[in-house]
Automatic annotation (TrEMBL):
<dbReference type="InterPro" id="IPR015358">
    <property type="entry name" value="Tscrpt_reg_MerR_DNA-bd"/>
</dbReference>
<keyword id="KW-0805">Transcription regulation</keyword>
<dbReference type="GO" id="GO:0003700">
    <property type="term" value="F:DNA-binding transcription factor activity"/>
</dbReference>
<feature type="domain" description="HTH merR-type">
    <location>
        <begin position="9"/>
        <end position="76"/>
    </location>
</feature>
<dbReference type="Pfam" id="PF09278">
    <property type="entry name" value="MerR-DNA-bind"/>
</dbReference>
<keyword id="KW-0804">Transcription</keyword>
<keyword id="KW-0238">DNA-binding</keyword>
<dbReference type="InterPro" id="IPR009061">
    <property type="entry name" value="DNA-bd_dom_put_sf"/>
</dbReference>
<dbReference type="GO" id="GO:0003677">
    <property type="term" value="F:DNA binding"/>
</dbReference>
<dbReference type="InterPro" id="IPR000551">
    <property type="entry name" value="MerR-type_HTH_dom"/>
</dbReference>
<feature type="coiled-coil region">
    <location>
        <begin position="89"/>
        <end position="123"/>
    </location>
</feature>
<dbReference type="Pfam" id="PF00376">
    <property type="entry name" value="MerR"/>
</dbReference>
<dbReference type="InterPro" id="IPR047057">
    <property type="entry name" value="MerR_fam"/>
</dbReference>
<protein>
    <submittedName>
        <fullName>DNA-binding transcriptional regulator, MerR family</fullName>
    </submittedName>
</protein>
<keyword id="KW-0175">Coiled coil</keyword>
């Protein structure tokens, strides 16, 4: 557990620094409705819940989920856990299928490139 985990309130700069992102990125997620900090005058005040949501947003982006997928998941944040888990399973299955297809395509491309390189190397050996 980090010292951040025990705090109740966070400034936007604190979260940006902790997660290695810009304050602009956090404001972008806010504009998209993924985060809803409170305001004290012109200052954004983030609570633990906002920090937890930011962790989920960043994890979702790192895993290749769209903002729409992340938004759908977060919309169930306070809802029925079964619905949340079911949605998550569906999105994970879709993402895995997409990545497996990409992996197959990459493996095919790598094999083809290796074959082309081998043919080119053989021609150079015969020519030289």
């Amino acid at each position: 557990m980090t010292p951040q985990d025990n705090r109740d309130l966070f400034a936007i700069a604190d979260l940006a620094r902790e997660f290695g992102i810009s304050t602009r990125a956090i404001r972008f997620y806010e504009a998209k409705g993924l985060l809803a900090p409170e305001r004290v005058g012109a200052t954004r005040v983030f609570r633990r819940r906002d920090r937890a949501r930011l962790i989920l947003i960043l994890r979702g982006k790192r895993l290749g989920f769209s903002l729409r997928d992340i938004s759908d998941y977060l919309s169930l944040y306070d809802a029925n856990r079964t619905q949340q888990v079911s949605l998550l399973i569906g999105k994970v299955d879709e993402r895995l299928a997409s990545l497996e297809t990409q992996l197959e395509d990459l493996q095919t491309t790598i094999s083809e490139l290796k074959e082309i390189k081998k043919l080119a190397d053989d021609r150079l050996d015969k020519a030289g």
